[in-house]
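Bench log, entry 3. Co-assembly request; chain sequences pasted below exactly as received.
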Amino acid sequence: EFVLTQSPGILSLSPGDRATLSCRASQSVISNYLAWYQQRPGQAPRLLIYGASNRADGIPDRFSGSGSGTDFTLTISRLEPEDFAVYYCQQYGISPRFTFGPGTKVDF
Amino acid sequence: QMHLQESGPGLVRASETLSLTCTVSGGSISSGGSYWGWVRQSPGGGLEWIGDIYFTGVTHYNPSLMSRLIISLDTSKNQVSLELTSAAATDTGVYYCARLRNSHFVPHCFEFWGQGAHVTVSS
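Structure output for the full assembly:
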């Protein structure tokens, strides 16, 4: 069974800090089809990064993605107050077609 | 700007059918190459892919839901629909519709999301 694991579960930081979030896959992700989403309370997820390292339209450049194979990272260079949210990774291609990680909460 | 809006009953009785509609504006659901999907979020916060449909009507379903699930397109109303039969308490959650990002015919992530519809399945 394919599994995405995210760490840490909770990341306690302050505005201006650098955030590093990890997503690890139990098998190599096909063609690096790995995406990252941000979800603020009461809102739908928002696409941040696709293809492991491509920023979606309108996403600030303080967000960056990296990695390949089974290990991926989302970095937020300097946290803004609106960045305190839950972040999910998601893969495409390995059954069941789309899988999400359990999320990392970035907490103030 | 594309806008997606889910609608449907917020309360469904167990064993009945959970039905939701996603109305799309700012784009056509039948435009070439477009994929439309459903994702749900449990009360505990986990996200689960339900299924998706290509503009031609070809569907892909989560194997765990396949036996109870139908996703369809209504091009006259520019709507995507979801029907989940034999609803159970474990189907309670927020249901999102989304347009998938298609790169070289690969629908690899969820680009635009609706605001979500809260559904409670009661016994």
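The longest strand of chain B covers residues 93-103. Chain B is about 0% helix and 60% strand.
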